[in-house]
Amino acid sequence: MRNAPSSNCARLAATPLALGGTPVAVWLAALDSKSLQPLDTTGCRRLVVVAPHPDDETLGLGATIAQLAASGVEVQVVSVSDGGAAQPGAGLSDQTKLEFTRRRELAEATSILGTMPSVSLGLPDGRLAEHEDRLNDLLVAILQGAAPQTWCAATWRGDGHPDHEAVGRAAAAACRRTGTVLLEYPLWMWHWAAPADREVPWERARQVGVSDWALRRKCSAAQRFRSQFESSAGGPPPVLPPSVLQRLLAVSEVVFR
């Protein structure tokens, strides 16, 4: 039985990105002491990775994607939104340009990771909770049409970002409807949570054993999302501070099964 976590959106909102979040050293020491069980993927022949925005799949699960793809597992990324609302206050024209940019960045990143061509569902960035039932139906159709031994990975239902949690809930419901194995990958949890946090289901946590080669692929793919990590001269600061990528690369990858 998959336990549905409570929302942690208030906790993420109360932890500004500028403050850095939980230090990398704290996570590394805790993960070393926890000795998490390894994720056994022998039953996975195809993986559908559901990402709320272009870059979530790479930042949260990029090394796992690269390693599975290299081992012969077919991996396909489903991007729920095109990420046009990443810059607060941007007008419609700028949002449209950003959506085009982020779709291109996603194509470049997934090519590096070795996946099949990605699928974009085009639901509105920042408002995915309003379209959760629609997303559930779309994911059911994708999973029902998939080959046997297909697994689904989606953002954790307690991750703290409204879009991440909505996608997690929709994916969990779709997996229940189709009998698909569900993996939940955290992303913002590494920022707002702490190793002893009771909101984190450590009893379901599995560590993905990835090679240095796969981590390098993840890093290379993540650098394609320049719209999120770089700022133009005189423009607003980057959407994602450098510390975000540094932490996600350092802690390797964990999923909840």
Descriptive notes:
The chain is α/β, with parallel strands linked by helices. It has one domain (22-256): Rossmann fold (3-Layer(aba) Sandwich), CATH 3.40.50.10320. Helix content is 43%, strand content 13%. It contains ten helices and eight strands. It has helices at 9-13, 24-34, 56-70, 92-113, 132-144, 162-178, 189-192, 212-222, 226-229, 242-250, and strands at 37-38, 46-51, 74-79, 119-120, 150-155, 181-185, 205-207, 254-256. The protein has a five-stranded parallel sheet, with helices on both faces. A three-stranded mixed sheet has the order 1-7-8, with no helix packed on it. α4 links the parallel β3 and β4 (119-120). The chain is globular, with a radius of gyration of 17 Å. The mean pLDDT is 93.
In brief, what are we looking at here?
This protein has 257 residues and is an alpha/beta fold.
Q: What is the CATH class name? A: Alpha Beta
Distance between the termini: 10 Å
Overall 3D form: globular
List low-pLDDT spans. Answer: none
Total DSSP helices: 10
List its salient traits.
about 260 residues; alpha/beta; Rossmann fold; five-stranded parallel beta sheet; three-stranded mixed beta sheet; 10 helices; about 45% helix
Q: What's the SSE blueprint?
A:
Elements: H1 9-13, H2 24-34, E1 37-38, E2 46-51, H3 56-70, E3 74-79, H4 92-113, E4 119-120, H5 132-144, E5 150-155, H6 162-178, E6 181-185, H7 189-192, E7 205-207, H8 212-222, H9 226-229, H10 242-250, E8 254-256
Parallel strand pairs: 1-7, 2-3, 2-5, 3-4, 5-6
Antiparallel strand pairs: 7-8
